[in-house]
Amino acid sequence: AIAIGHAARVAVAALLLAASASGAAIHSTHALGFAPSSPLSASHALRGAGGYLVSPQASSALLGQSLASGGRRKGGSGLLGMNMMFDQLSGSLEGVMKSLAGKKQITDKSISTALRDVRRSLLEADVSLAVADEVIEGIRTKAIGTEVVDGVEPAQQFVKVMNDELTRILGGEQSPLAQVEGGMTKILLAGLQGTGKTTAAAKLALYCQENRKSKVLLVACDVYRPAAIEQLQTLAAQIGAEVFQQGTEANPRQIAREALEYAKEGGFDTVIVDTAGRQVVDQNLMTELKDVKHVVQPDEVLLVVDAMTGQEAANLTKSFNDAVGITGAVLTKLDGDTRGGAALSVQTVSG
């Protein structure tokens, strides 16, 4: 969804963007959507909803929204990515019934083939190798030695163990996006260049306006990417939000500081800071991000990750988490990917 600054409070937010940057919804264990009752049934429970929600509470309000950066793709669904992963997992369990038939206890030998298939399915879905191995070990540990309950097929019991483990990893409880009562909620967006941070900022602003009746100030701290400020202004104009910017010559730390002062004077209750990205993680990026975070003192630090990043998503998440301590993650362009395993990697690595 990927809470790392606040221990077990993480958000896997899925912001669905088509290849043309089509309108997307924000989803997350951070409460920007709704949670499927069971990960393994997600492909059925959520089909057509517009995106996979790892566990949330509000994305439905955004599913039909679109910004000028692109219209919502007709018939498109970000569910495809996560559906594919869960469908693959479901398919890998077809042989479990035979291997566990007549067994009174689940043993390592009886589920070894099933676990190999599950591991392969995770890797094919772009879950990182380390995360896939961790998931498999968790399932193995919980399943082996489990006594078969009367009236319950061994295979069904194994599936339940696997389902419980995936639910635990993806986030079994809703964790709302931070909101400071009677004060100012500050949200910092971070990530590499081209992941969709600016569009995510506007979508998040729209969510806060429509679902929290917030007065939102968008802060343009990306002074490097050509037309980054103009893009944020264009998107903000469509949703009636205000942008604080000081051009491309100002220092991001200075922009952030003066933006907070402006927000206090203007009575804004939510500030969303759009930061600069780089093509790769580098020291300059992290240093500047740390400086901006120090000034803003955000209630949320959301890492924006391109779902196409695949298995590299785990390393990317670790780098940003180690540097600034993220509290949530936004997975963009899920409907442009057929797998979606990055969500599992990000959630697992971030804690």
TrEMBL record:
Pfam family, one: SRP54_N
Keyword set, alphabetical order: GTP-binding, Nucleotide-binding, Signal
Domain AAA+ ATPase: 183-344
UniProt-listed Gene3D superfamilies: P-loop containing nucleotide triphosphate hydrolases, Signal recognition particle SRP54, nucleotide-binding domain
Name of this protein: SRP54-type proteins GTP-binding domain-containing protein
Origin species: Hemiselmis tepida
PANTHER family, per the entry: SIGNAL RECOGNITION PARTICLE 54K PROTEIN SRP54, SIGNAL RECOGNITION PARTICLE SUBUNIT SRP54
Keyword field contains Membrane: no
Transmembrane segments: none
GO molecular function, one term: GTPase activity
Domain SRP54-type proteins GTP-binding residues, every copy: 184-351
Residues of the Signal recognition particle SRP54 helical bundle domain: 85-170
Keyword Manganese belongs to the record: no
Any one biological process term the GO annotation gives: SRP-dependent cotranslational protein targeting to membrane
Entry GO CC: signal recognition particle
Subcellular location: Cytoplasm
Signal peptide: 1-23
